[in-house]
Design brief:
The complex is a heterodimer of chains A (about 240) and B (about 290).
Chain A (H helix, E strand, L loop, with lengths): L1 E10 L2 E11 L4 E5 L6 H8 L7 E6 L2 E2 L5 H7 L1 E4 L11 H8 L3 H5 L1 H11 L1 H5 L10 H13 L5 E5 L7 H16 L3 E6 L2 H7 L2 E6 L2 E7 H6 L1 H8 L3
Parallel strand pairs in A: 3-8, 3-9, 6-7, 7-8
Antiparallel strand pairs in A: 1-2, 1-4, 4-5, 9-10
Chain B lengths: L1 H32 L6 H19 L3 H24 L7 H27 L14 E4 L2 E4 H23 L1 H11 L1 H6 L4 H26 L7 H15 L4 H22 L3 H15 L9
Antiparallel strand pairs in B: 1-2
Helix pairs in contact in B: 1-5, 1-8, 1-9, 1-10, 2-3, 2-4, 2-8, 2-9, 3-8, 5-6, 5-8, 6-8, 9-10, 9-11, 10-11
Classes of the chains: A alpha/beta (about 240), B mainly alpha (about 290).
């Protein structure tokens, strides 16, 4: 479904990604793991059109995305729930979700999508009149994911959904991510929490210093000695 | 004495509503794009002259001319956004504010010159037959035209408020104001939102220009003083609240008018004193969040 082919991406004059290639099949849950600053966020920002690669290509079902502005990429069916959540804190929960369905195609079917999101996160329905900034960190993350789902994406990009949250909340959010994936939405999950991400994903890519340093079956990686040494500290 | 104060109070509300209208446009542009358009008052001046033209050349009543002027200044604003401001949108936040000041100063130098060529330096006003009329309430005289301008301003502000809170487009403006990156990720065409918001802001200034031309006079040089008034009101209100900016405009209008009884011509400085005091003691403004 999604194919990223040898992209080079720069922040200004600084190269951030070298020859990065990856793919996500339909209905697959793929994880990008790696240390802070390795370039994971840059990868998902490039896929969503916030950054434009200087070389290489990004395609979804054969359609080139890499020269498209972000709002067109969303129309194609890719939505990113960004790092640090990026919710509209001064607007209500309901308004945040409404903006999630901004694209006309998603706007038309938003009533059904609202139900879908409220079923996944009942707390959002309880708090829909509340200003988003007054939600707890976990609830804000749920809102960020719910808002991204409102566009009815084929592929959901999640950037560090566990960031700064208590372990018990992380567990429940990861549960919902699995549920979302089981409804047929492809997921590309960026995580520093390597053990949890590998436990959830079908496949994973390891990102190191702006390059893909390895990839494979999530279960296989979880058992790999090198990975265990480098990321899980359980050598 | 009481009647004098009451009369002044009413006059203050009338002029304050115009301050509010001008300030709302400036606040909208600054909030969404983080650019400070100090040529905002120039669009007011041009709008006033457009209304004047419609009235003197075509004999069109200024109130019927208002929508036409709004559309014309909207297009003018959109054109200037494309021409000189859109390049700024991509810049880093701090550079953006500085460069927008330079661009605004440039327009501030150009606009009065052009309007001097088109309309001479003379003071002009739009004076329909009913312009001198007034009626008394409790010993206070209410002019038809100022009252009409007040009602217009209130209606426009309410309309803007409804646009921002009830429509998808308005919500996309608010979303872009808060976080443009997230707005993009929602599928909002942020560049287009910038263009329309900027044009909307200038159109509000243009409408105010017609109301100014009806209630007082216009000349090619009034732009900067209206920009200053709008700035004071925006600082007084705090960024981001349409109702707040309008209300702060009325406060400034009333304070200026009433104080004029006691301190005469120094009342203009009073606005600047308020500006400084607010920046020192309540930088988020009266209605802004800390």
């Amino acid at each position: 479904m999604l194919e990223v082919k040898s992209i080079n991406v720069y922040h200004g004059d600084l190269q951030a990604l070298w020859d990065v290639s990856l793919f996500v099949n339909e209905r697959e849950l793929v994880s990008l793991i790696g240390a802070n600053g390795a370039g994971k966020t840059t990868i998902v920002e490039t896929i969503s059109g916030l950054l434009t690669p200087r070389a290489g290509s990004v395609t979804l079902d054969g359609v080139r995305l890499d020269q498209m502005p972000t709002h067109k990429v969303v129309k194609m069916g890719i939505c990113l729930a960004p790092e640090e959540k990026g919710i509209f804190t001064g607007m209500t929960v309901l308004e945040n979700l409404e903006l999630g369905a901004f694209v006309p195609e998603s706007r038309r079917i938003r009533n059904g999508t609202f139900q879908f999101v409220y079923d996944l996160f009942p707390v959002l329905e309880e708090r829909k009149k509340q200003t988003a900034g007054t939600l707890s960190g976990g609830e804000q993350q749920m809102l960020a994911i719910g808002r991204a789902l409102m566009s009815k994406p084929k592929l959901l990009l999640l950037d560090e959904p566990s960031l700064g949250l208590a372990p018990i909340i992380v567990k429940s959010i990861f549960g919902v991510i699995k549920q979302i994936n089981e409804t047929g939405v492809g997921v590309l999950l960026v995580e520093q929490n390597v053990a949890a991400a590998l436990g959830l994903a079908n496949r994973a890519y390891i990102v190191e210093n702006g390059r893909i340093a390895g990839s494979g079956d999530a279960k296989g990686l979880l058992d790999d000695e090198k990975i265990r040494d480098a990321y899980l500290g359980t050598g | 004495m009481i009647e004098l104060v009451a009369q002044t109070f009413v006059n203050g509300i009338n002029i304050g509503a115009l301050y509010g209208l001008v300030a709302v446009g400036l606040s909208l542009t600054f909030g969404v794009m983080k650019i400070l358009n100090i040529a905002h008052g120039e669009f007011l001046m041009v709008g006033g002259y457009f209304g004047f033209w419609l009235f003197t050349l075509l004999g069109l009543d200024p109130l019927y001319g208002l929508p036409l002027v709004a559309v014309a200044v909207f297009l003018l604003g959109a054109g200037f956004y494309k021409l000189v401001f859109s390049g700024l949108a991509r810049l880093h936040e701090e550079t953006k504010v500085k460069n927008s000041l330079l661009v605004g100063f440039g327009l501030f130098l150009i606009f009065p010159q052009i309007s001097r060529m088109l309309w001479t330096s003379d003071e002009q006003a739009i004076t329909p037959a009913y312009s001198g009329g007034s009626f008394p309430i409790l010993g206070v005289r209410c002019g038809y035209v100022p009252l009409c301008a007040l009602v217009m301003a209130v209606v426009i502000i309410l309309g803007l408020h409804l646009l921002l809170t009830k429509t998808y487009f308005g919500k996309s403006i608010r979303g872009t104001t808060e976080n443009w990156k997230s707005a993009k990720l929602m599928g909002i065409n942020v560049e287009r939102t910038y263009l329309i918001t900027f044009a909307l802001g200038t159109a509000l200034a243009g409408i105010a220009g017609v109301l100014v031309a009806m209630t007082q006079t216009i000349s090619p040089d009034i732009g900067m003083s209206w920009t200053l008034k709008a700035l004071i009101v925006v600082v007084l209100a705090g960024i981001g609240s349409v109702g707040g900016a309008f209300f702060a405009g009325i406060i400034l209008g009333v304070v200026e008018a009433v104080s004029a009884i006691f301190i005469g011509p120094y009342t203009v400085a009073l606005g600047l004193v308020i500006f400084l005091l607010i920046l020192m003691f309540r930088p988020q403004g009266l209605f802004g969040k800390a």
